[in-house]
Amino acid sequence: MRSLLGAVVFLVVATNSERFTLNPVFKEIFPKEYYSSDPPKGPNGTAAKVYVALHIMDIDEISEANMGFRLHTFVIDMWKDNRLKLSQLLENSSVRIVPEEIYSKIWKPDMIFVNSKGGYLFKQSVTNRFVKILDDGYLYRTTRYLFQVDCLMNLQKYPMDTQQCFLKTGLSTLHWMDEESSPHRNISLSLVDANAPLQFDVAQPRPHKAREEWIFTEYDYLYANFTFTRRLTARFVSWMRNIVEAQRYG
């Protein structure tokens, strides 16, 4: 009986081990000298372009006291690493999702969210992130974040104010996903969920791009611009009406 139980345990372990074995085709994608710390180059020898889109799920906690707001978004970025040998994988494998073991070894864009006061990468049962290899060899990554974003608000017209805020993202070669050079043009910036905070009306965000010169290099910055218009509640409108009537009839 004991030997039979041992055989069953061995069978289960072996089956699980085989089930989660890395697809051999992924082991062939790295050249002999590949360093994940070195960024890939484009066709003309310059830094490879990284294309970005933000699919915003929710905006809340817009606070003049804390001078900021909270942003729940999917950050989508896409790039091509010509050093990776993907031809065999693209021809012979229907598996395009990059496993974690390979993801940890490839170069990834390390974007800087400049005016984020804090960030959280969703990790519930597993990390909310995946990387897919597209038919033309581009790597397509989707990551789910929760950001606390800084915003210097102008309160001179409070409580009938409109606030202009933004999320600033930086890297050496950043481009919005809908630019003409993008091989997979798509909407760069969208507010997926129309639910707005009770205190504000939230307009559809607008993308903007700028380049800044530093001492030794230049950086591209992508701006996701937000417009928050404070709502006048029925109680406030009633209060204002009473003041106007009191002044009129003195």
UniProtKB/TrEMBL annotation:
Q: Which domain of life is it from?
A: Eukaryota
List localization entries: Membrane
Molecular function as annotated in GO: extracellular ligand-gated monoatomic ion channel activity; transmembrane signaling receptor activity
Residues forming the Neurotransmitter-gated ion-channel ligand-binding domain are 32-178
Q: Does the keyword Signal apply?
A: yes
The annotated topology with respect to the bilayer is: Multi-pass membrane protein
Q: Tell me the leader sequence span.
A: 1-19
Is Signal one of the keywords?
A: yes
Question: Keywords assigned by UniProt?
Answer: Ion channel, Ion transport, Membrane, Receptor, Signal, Transport
SUPFAM superfamilies noted in UniProt: Nicotinic receptor ligand binding domain-like
- Cellular component annotations (GO), alphabetically ordered: membrane
Q: Which family does it belong to?
A: Belongs to the ligand-gated ion channel (TC 1.A.9) family.
Protein name from the UniProt record: Glycine receptor subunit alpha-3-like
Q: What is the lineage of its organism?
A: Eukaryota, Metazoa, Ecdysozoa, Arthropoda, Chelicerata
